[in-house]
Amino acid sequence: MPYKPHDPSSPIQIPTSELNVLEYWNEIDAFKTSQKLSEGKPEFSFFDGPPFATGKPHYGHLLAGTIKDVVTRHAHATGHHVERRFGWDTHGLPVEHEIDKQLGITGKADVLAMGIDKYNAACREIVMRYSGEWQYTVERMGRWIDFDTGYKTLDPSYMESVWWVFGQLWEKGQVYRGLKVMPYSTGCTTPLSNFEAGEDYRDVRDPAVTVSFPLADDPNTSLLAWTTTPYTLPSNLALCVNPDFTYIKVHDVERNTNFILLEKLLGTVYKDYVPAGAAAATGKKADAKKKKDDKEEEPKFKIVGSFQGKDMVGWRYVPMFDYFTEQYEDRAFRVLADGYVTDSSGTGIVHQAPSFGEDDHRICVAHGIVRDDEIPPCPIDESGKFTSEVPEYQGRYVKEADKDIMKHLKEKNRLITQGDITHSYPFCWRSGTPLLYRAIPCWFVRVANMSDKLVALNEKTRWVPAAVGENRFGNWLKNARDWNISRNRYWGTPMPLWASEDMKEVVCVSSVAQLEELSGLTGIKDLHRESIDQITIPSKQGKGDLKRIEEVFDCWFESGSMPYAQSHYPFENEARFKKSFPADFVSEGIDQTRGWFYTLLVLGAHLFDKAPWKNLIVTGLVLAADGKKMSKKLKNYPDPMEIVSKFGADCVRLFLVNSPVVRGDNLRFREEGVREILTSVILKWINSLNFYLGQVELYEQASGKKFVYDPEAAKSQNVMDRWILASCQTLIQHVDQEMSAYRLYTVIPKLLDLIADLTNWYIRFNRTRLKGSGGEEDTLSALNTLYEALFTLCLTMSSFTPYTSEMVYQSLRASSPAPKEGEDVRSVHFLPFPAMRKEYYDPVIERQVKRMRAVIELGRVIRDRKTLRTKMPLKELIIFHHDQEYLDDVRSLDSYITAELNVVSITYTSDESAVGIKYRASADYSVLGRKLRKDIGKVRTGIPALDSSACKAFLADKRVQVNGVELVDGDLFIARYVEQSEEDKKAFESDTDGDVIVLLDIRMYAELEGQSLIRSLTARVNKLRKEAGLKPVDKVDVVYEFDEGEEDALRGAIPGNEEMLEKAIGTVPVPASQSNGGGKLLGTEKRVKEAESGGKEEKYTLSLFGRD
């Protein structure tokens, strides 16, 4: 089916046009066809991070998909074969959490009662819940990627490769089972990795209590410890001091007991106490007394002794609770010392519960309180509730039990102070429940011992933007800790370890074939828990049957294995894998610096001593318009597909890619921004195409010949032709260079500039040429140029705006030359990225036009400021610049300036005195202030006082004294301006862009008003033709009729301008009194705003009549 042609005479609906393109792509199987066309070309490899299909795509997914599509399309267009396979992340907490909510699962007992097979079957049912929506969204966004051969992490082939990855780490001795205090999610009943724990920090209020631990041999003296987790006190086994601190013993007068703590932190217990150091700084008196009603009372405490922390080691104290005294009495409940204790808060003595703190566990193991292979007291279950080991609080969620624990301590006189504190606390990124830190037997991959290698490998890769890779990610790598890869869950790839009950014999299985060989079973088809948990392996050490451990892999381990598992490596596709690893390109959001990017790098380094990517684009986050996180609950953002249906996918793509988010910053999504792309970019591009098609039709009708673009045509000598073609070559060079460096954010502005150049400058300045005013040869040259500019835009924009590029390209095909033999030109996406044509490259002409435009834009600003209509001719434009080259550049194009600004003459000068040029200085005080510090005040007052001669001298000398402070080159901005008398201002208005200065004669001259009338007449006729729906080739007669009582001002203006009118509007208007009235009336002008606001000489009405 051929492409439905674009009709330039009908208003275009971009979303409808895109659906037309999409239908055409499906008809010609465009993506697969492009893949076949690129077979045998050099490979460009791309790894796509797999999303979950349990939720619908959001703007972050649209952003990531667009960037991936842009880069891979460009790679294809630059001569590569790019395999693009979609992947699905199907295992892990996101899926299980949905099922737990759906089925009311609260813990392990519920799952076992239901049966792991049924639980996993429920998970399997929902993992692809929104896959249809995903595929529709991805394809509607114009992204080309293969869903048919995509991978899923639940596929047995994928899971087997994950086993192989783990097996390689096992063989290298990089896996171990350790008892470590880990962040634990009670909502998901599983430990999390350290990078997952950092995903969701929130400010919360927690209790802050100071409790006493009486010394065993001096019950009237207590050690004081401060904690924000009262629920950990039943598990206390030790107290820790800093060996280098000096602690004091105070006698509490009110309580008649003694306390030991840091003197600096007495304020924790005695709120009115001012430490000696703080007293000296504030001028207050340090003491232990309190005042009431201005009367001095007795001291609240007295210092009665002091001790070095190291001398306190071994002191024994009375346990807070008796739950674990029998088990640990001989080795616990004593004072330990470690340098991690600080003097910034609390009491300088830290209570140790080795099941609930990483440092607690480390210190207790180091001092023999607990062994490294035993689980310390941890009287809470998987849901965060107290167990029967603490009967008073059994079944209570630990955070909820805090109040009752504090009440109990108060009754025992062990609660010294009670309050609360607001601090940042980690929550589970999936369930939203506060994390607990608890000792858990986990399986770890060694990472800490290779952090230097990770840093070095990462430094060999390219990050865009570089700062994220160097700082955020680089710093994370430098402090990398061993990675907990095990999860006590069900729906995931089971860890392939078969072990004896005592864990002394452990067998790692790396493939299905190995499992069948070791177990004696055959025909294993699935690797999920329900299929393999019952499989045993005979022990080689006489320990009976080895059983698989319960844990499954963290889903991050699975996604990090994607480069290997997507191809079932090493069991299949070995050659393909070796060609694609490491990937040329990956891209995801900044949140993946501690997620997918990290796991990819760790596994790549362990397996192959390589970073698994060469180039990486990291994006910021897409936020709601108010700067908050997008929330379905708050409904603070528009539905993505509604925006696509309203404005088109290309507008959304351009808005996202041409935003700070591609530089790693956050983006506030605004519907208005997408609308602006539609009106200022896409529609202007289409308007340029429509104009071209209209002029081709006009030429073909007038000449009787078909226009076909000639790539071998002689180089045009027209300045604007040379400029726009030179701009095309610069664009091609820029896009090629910047895309090679993956800097998408520098590409889009240049592409948009060319669209603006084409519509706002080239077409505007060449309308009459394209209509045939310069003869057939010149018309062909202009049409050839406009075709090439539009075609270049199609090819350079095709990766960014695939739909619009296709639509414009298809519209150009009618005037395209015949394809070469065997060349498939059915789609713009089958064509290569354009090569720069050196014969068109001309930086001089680009510089000249750039300067000409600067002058024109300044002239327009002056006209707008003084409300001088462009159709009113002005007598003189004065252009000042100190550089003769600049003046010569502008002079070479002065005909365009006189026409555009409607001025009679231009004067060029570099004589400052003739124009009244003066100099003034300014500065960026925020930057200068960091340099000058205390002297910035002198400079701020002195700069406005610098006279013009001093400012001019600074440009030459590069230094100046301002109120005794020397400023040098770079400290000041010097600008030229025109100093005018009040009389001068009545004649000339000036403006500058900081480089060139222009002065425009703003006075009215009677002899120039006739020209204004002709311009106004031409504009009004063209507007009426458009309103009547006429094409450029339609010939009409124009009749005008002045309002009753108004003088016919056109009668004197038209003579001498007949030829110009014929070229501009195709006829010479006549007054109604001279019209023969023979043709059909096609349209009559309604009174327009321009006519109403014009002078009496414009008070007329136009009518159009068809020619017989």
TrEMBL record:
This is Isoleucine--tRNA ligase, cytoplasmic. It comes from the Eukaryota. Residues 1069-1108 are annotated as: Disordered. Pfam families: Anticodon_1 (PF08264), DUF5915 (PF19302), tRNA-synt_1 (PF00133). Residues 1083-1108 have a biased composition (Basic and acidic residues). Residues 721-876 form the Methionyl/Valyl/Leucyl/Isoleucyl-tRNA synthetase anticodon-binding domain. It comes from Dioszegia hungarica. It catalyses: tRNA(Ile) + L-isoleucine + ATP = L-isoleucyl-tRNA(Ile) + AMP + diphosphate. GO terms for molecular function: aminoacyl-tRNA deacylase activity; ATP binding; isoleucine-tRNA ligase activity; tRNA binding. Its EC number is 6.1.1.5. Belongs to the class-I aminoacyl-tRNA synthetase family.
